[in-house]
Queue: 3 jobs
Job 1
Amino acid sequence: MPIATQTYRNLFAGLDVSVPLLDGSRCVYTNLDNAASTPPLRAVEEAVSAFMQYYSSVHRGTGFKSQLCTHIFEEARRMTAAFVGADPQVHTCMFGKNTTEMINRLALCYPFSAGRGVVLVSTMEHHSNDLPWRGVAKVLHCGVLPDGRLDEAHFDSLLREWGSRVALVAVSGASNVTGYINPVHRLAEKAHAVGARILVDCAQLAPHRKVEMGAPDDPACLDYIVLSAHKMYAPYGCGALVGRRDTFENAAPDHRGGGQVEFVTEEEVAWTNPPERDEAGSPNTAGAVALGAAIAQLSALGMDAVAAHEAELTAYALERLARVPGLQLYGDTNPANAASRVGVLPMRVEGVSHFLVGAILGYEFGIGVRSGCFCAHPYLLRLLGVGEEQARRVRGEILSGNRADMPGLVRASFGLYNSFEDVDRLVEALQRILRGDYRGVYRQDRATGEFKPEGWNVDYGEYFRFI
């Protein structure tokens, strides 16, 4: 039996919930926006629920519940480090809100020097792995090829020109726009050859492929990785940074408060050791529990099985979408290459705004996708061939409060629970949109660019209330 025809749906919570449609009916929601956030695994939901009866403070509490919570929190930390192949003698693992916070944390404590103050990033980066570096260093952008793939020749030329001044290479493990998987270990070798280190943003990679930091003495090893639990079926607000312990031992923490000191006087502070010194205040223990439970479930399934399921699903989607007239796919559209990418499919519907396509899919077909630039504006502008003059015009319109003509694409992205049937529903809906076969009269909010159908009136309290 083909892998993707088997179901992993029973492992997840909330997948059979119905949502309202514009015609007054309801249907089971089809979530194809997993690159943004994923639904929770049942194992995660159950672990957090079971943990709550023991919830207490962590670290330094004398009661049993506090001691147990400390044990659970530290076990989640150990599991996260092991999940990416970290060496406990060399690496540390710290928790925070998400990938964005973790990259900012590294940026604020990274050991730049007068001679090495350059960070090399790629044009395909999510803003989270670009903007934090702009605030602390000179940033060089490695270009991409016309199909969106990393231009490794340009990467090499930048290292030749700037190598002695490059402190860090910061690159995505997998693109949140095109799904390309970068050759991070090869890039690591090149970075290390010029005395730089490498950070890999694994937010999109870790839920789909096995991540291996590698032995610290291996030239191809990864120095730092970051990931987010909410993209790994554990949406409880936890992110992780795993990296070289010496980086954090020799830097003052970016946030300061309780739980990160050995001793304080009115004049002096003696910081404790990593990772506690970089986790000021009470931590998100429930989020760490959720991440640990997700890692346990993914590990039990095996990341090779996860990757195989996604590759088969992606190949099927590429084959079906390629046969839809008027639909343009971006990135690598060859189904034979599905195993070398993650299941992120950017597309454009001829003659229809990406904002409108996303709206119709949601309001009339119960399909969740994402439209826009996916927090990767430079990458999207390059993929869409938007020149400098047009980019300046768009920028001016946006700053004046008009996003109606903002360039962008529609993105469908897969999770472990998605199936061939989900792809079929998407294809059928796109075909109907291209035929004009939808019922709504849509009005655009020019300030946001978003479309809403006339007559849409839903009481959200019917679906969730706090009391």
Note: The two ends are 46 Å apart (CA to CA).
Job 2
Amino acid sequence: MKNEISTRQILSVYEKIREHGEADDGKHTLEGISASTDFDGYTLYLEGHQVRLSTGFHNTYHLDYESERASEQFLKKLQYIEANYD
């Protein structure tokens, strides 16, 4: 799983979800992926397909997922959002 996604891609997808997604209760959702932050905005979260990605400083991220298949679907959806929304 290491190095399958870059911090740049995470931030890009986060911004696209915030810009194009539907807002609801502090989250924005686009293509089944929700984007949110913690209370101070230092940690970003992307969630969907039974996966939760968190990222903060120092170009690190953490993926929590129930299965390898769920993780693969999630990463494909992030790639799709990055490539198809401007």
Note: The beta strands are 22-24, 27-30, 33-37, 44-48, 51-55, 61-65.
Job 3
Amino acid sequence: MFAIIETGGKQYRVEEGFHFQVEKLDAAEGAEVTLDKVLFVDKNGEVQVGQPYLTGASVTCEVLGQGRGKKIIIFKKWRRNDSFKKQGHRQDYTLLKVKAISA
């Protein structure tokens, strides 16, 4: 059984026991989070598709931790001006573990 969910403007394919990172959620470590934007559920070949979301379907996850991703460097250079701009960025994320899928 798997589901496709939407959170943080992105879509994820999840199964029970699956660990994945999402955009930062405001939840404490060890708390349970219910994600209700479920787009698709497959129960052993029985498929349910939402338009755009399934009503009554949800995915329950446990928050394993909060973190920050790898640093990326943004470098812009203007030619013939002897000038440049260098900037770094680290994206915050939340690590989740899927406990149950209900549809």
Note: The beta strands are 2-7, 10-15, 19-23, 32-35, 38-43, 46-49, 58-68, 72-78, 83-89, 92-102.
